[in-house]
Design brief:
With 149 residues, this protein is mostly beta strands. The protein is built from no helices and 11 strands. The protein is globular, with a radius of gyration of 17 Å.
């Protein structure tokens, strides 16, 4: 699987050097790229400067793919920087947490991580995340992926 990062929509709080995605990682592994293309510029395990986060211990190298023996959804946060002429990638692998927030759940001040509003993340690759928003259609909810950096 190849992931493209670098779009403004993927950035964390407008930071142009920090990007996130919720990704399924298994023993086959993934690579990422600055563009959403498989164009020979992909970055694999060997291109990572450092690995951190709640689930960092699950991550391994599998033929330069970023892989794991513990398949599942991971919140992957990439912090990029420049060292000389090279791009440097420091990556966090965290538990994926999706929370409901805002007036639809009685939270008029948009408090993050309000008790009782953590959604259940599926444990299979092909599961739909649409079941997370089984709310009346007359209400609007905001889903946020909590990025702990």
């Amino acid at each position: 699987m190849e992931l493209g990062f670098g779009n403004q929509d993927d950035s964390v709080n407008g930071a142009t050097h920090v990007f996130w995605s919720m990704v399924w990682i298994d023993d086959a592994g993934i690579k990422f790229n600055q563009s959403k293309a498989w164009d020979g510029n992909e970055t694999g395990f060997s291109g990572i400067n450092s690995i951190n986060g709640d689930l960092a211990g699950n991550i391994k190298d599998n033929g330069d793919n970023i892989a794991t023996d513990t398949p599942g959804w991971y919140l992957m946060v990439i912090t990029s920087s420049v060292s000389g002429r090279n791009l440097v990638y420091d990556i966090q692998f965290n538990k994926p947490e999706i929370w409901l927030m805002g007036p639809v759940v009685g939270n008029s001040d948009w408090k993050e991580q309000a008790e009782g509003w953590l959604c259940t993340i599926p444990d299979t690759f092909n599961a739909s995340l649409s079941h997370l928003l089984l709310l009346p259609v007359s209400r609007v909810a905001m889903v946020t992926v909590c990025v702990h950096t």
